[in-house]
Write a structure and sequence with these properties.
homodimer, alpha+beta, Aspartate Aminotransferase, domain 1, Aspartate Aminotransferase, domain 2, four-stranded antiparallel beta sheet
Amino acid sequence: MTKESIIQPITNAIRSVIGNEETLIALHEPSFQGNEWAYVKECLDTGWVSSVGKYVDQFEEMLAEITGVKKAVAVVNGTASLHMCLKLAGVREQDEVLIPALTFIATANAVSYTGAIPHFVDIEEKTLGLDPVNLADYLSDLATVHNGECFNKHTGRRIKAVVPMHTFGHPVDLDRLQEVCEKYSLALIEDAAESLGSYYKGRHTGNWGIASAISFNGNKITTTGGGGAILTNDEELGKLAKHLTTTAKLPHKWEFRHDQIAYNYRMPNLNAALGCAQLEQLPLFLEKKRRLAEAYRNAFSVVSGVSFVSEPEDTVSNYWLNTILLQDEYASARDAILEETNVNGIMTRPAWTLMHKLPMFTECPRMDLSTAESIERRLINIPSSPHLTHQDMTS
Amino acid sequence: MTKESIIQPITNAIRSVIGNEETLIALHEPSFQGNEWAYVKECLDTGWVSSVGKYVDQFEEMLAEITGVKKAVAVVNGTASLHMCLKLAGVREQDEVLIPALTFIATANAVSYTGAIPHFVDIEEKTLGLDPVNLADYLSDLATVHNGECFNKHTGRRIKAVVPMHTFGHPVDLDRLQEVCEKYSLALIEDAAESLGSYYKGRHTGNWGIASAISFNGNKITTTGGGGAILTNDEELGKLAKHLTTTAKLPHKWEFRHDQIAYNYRMPNLNAALGCAQLEQLPLFLEKKRRLAEAYRNAFSVVSGVSFVSEPEDTVSNYWLNTILLQDEYASARDAILEETNVNGIMTRPAWTLMHKLPMFTECPRMDLSTAESIERRLINIPSSPHLTHQDMTS
């Protein structure tokens, strides 16, 4: 087989699942079939579109119930949420924060906003997320713990936190990662931007960290237009999250007094209204996406040279973005596959450029990133909208 | 006359303008009588609610036309806009930035986000905004210019920029302020958060600075739920503003590559749709608000001990928040007036607590702030929603 011989079978496998529609098939489109209109119209009819209104509270309560956390705080987007999670965990200027090399830019940017330095770690193929075993090995050489704080022996800087990202909805190995965090006194912050509806050992992602970030961008499983949320099981941190994201204004009937430098990160009521209607449909979206993933798995099981990424052991994934991995000998066909599919109306995309390859992060500390680099060469995301699911797909 | 004798005449003057409705009269409520629902519904029907969609472009074009600038960039809120304006003007860590002591917290917070230090300056009573004559005097002692950069002789730090805020919609004296900026090599950034529809010598506020910030919060003259915009006449800065607010992602059909640490500040299409419908009605809102202000001016012209704040000479104000100032001898009745009006269903509020009195800014450099302190003791904002205007109000 030549490298090119894999292109058509992959395109055919995708087409066998999503059909032969002439229109462009997006990577992930939202679906507004529920109460979106009703709730959004109510905001306009009542004039409550902005910083006050019942939908923000309702959205936060629904989200806390779905994820099982004590407090959810709605914010403008996932990036803002990550920024606040790092602040809540006590990340300060000149700290180092361990993050996977394979992630969306928001993870690294949010670390930078706090004045801390991203420190890139490798991933494992079975989860596409941070590899806790590899990280433990790395820290055994690199790190030292003094008085309950972890330090990088080479740079002398404090390593304050680790931020795993649940890639495309697939949970990382949280049990093993928690062991590493305990051993090295690291704060665990989950970048659960992509994993609403994903569980590790029966407990929702975002429910494991000191604080966790969710995204409700337009391409996510549920959307608020733009939006995000902070999750935490620490009630004091929950209150602080609300305070920090609403300009740290002290409650008063008319006085404007603020007690610290803080942020205007609150989600408008209009967007929360959309979010409430979307969360109502989350179980339906999850079911449809699971059936779509199953159909892809079946279709790709008979294509050689490529594998479909399934949820890791002990987890339930939301299958946010369906993903295929080329075998190494076909990696050089990746761009031709991207070209062929996109030209023919099937949106596909590669992995994000690894963080350590971006000009602003090339000088940041990092470990050997062989697995991330291998995955980057071989990964392709394929169309994943819930509405692509047909009735006859097996569940 | 006792201090208390002023309370009832003020309440009566407000009631004579807004009527005797039993329901709570808000300080400023939005009005959605135009195409809001049509445009928002189109977003839901087409699925374009988030980072892509025609309304963001349309909103930016409408805003550029209204304000006469070359480029407007829509963002999540006014605070984000201010943050970006400071970055665009080259404000760096450990710079000082001159801002009025009387402003909303966003101005000072945005300076802090860049790592710079707010330096508080006094205001003048006729504009409620930064006093350029006073500032010039102050800088003649404090500042020195070397190689086109201004330095604070006491702290040794660079003074990079000045950020006037057009308080409640009333423009500051921009001609004189520009003279000060030229003499001391200061970048002029306008905090025009409150002044959409306000003009200084026939040119729109926000059109004078290197970059300027607008807010579309729910309480503003037009709203996007939550939102803001950056205005600039420098096309290169306009491009940079778009790049910096959209994660600095380089254009590519599928690759995710970013060339600097940047922000996720884009306005969602859903919010921009609301904004387009609101901007269509801006002339109507301005007309109604002008008539409301005129009615207040007439009503307060016969109340002794208090004056209504009118637009400064050479300006047209949007009269965003109508404002009265107590004479000094009645200042101690301010809280009783706030109490009486709020208890009786008329929302009123005092000035924001002056910035230098907030715990996080008490150590920041500042000049004598006598006028700001005097205004703070005497200022009350009164209900200003456009829908409070009646047909029989003189125009």
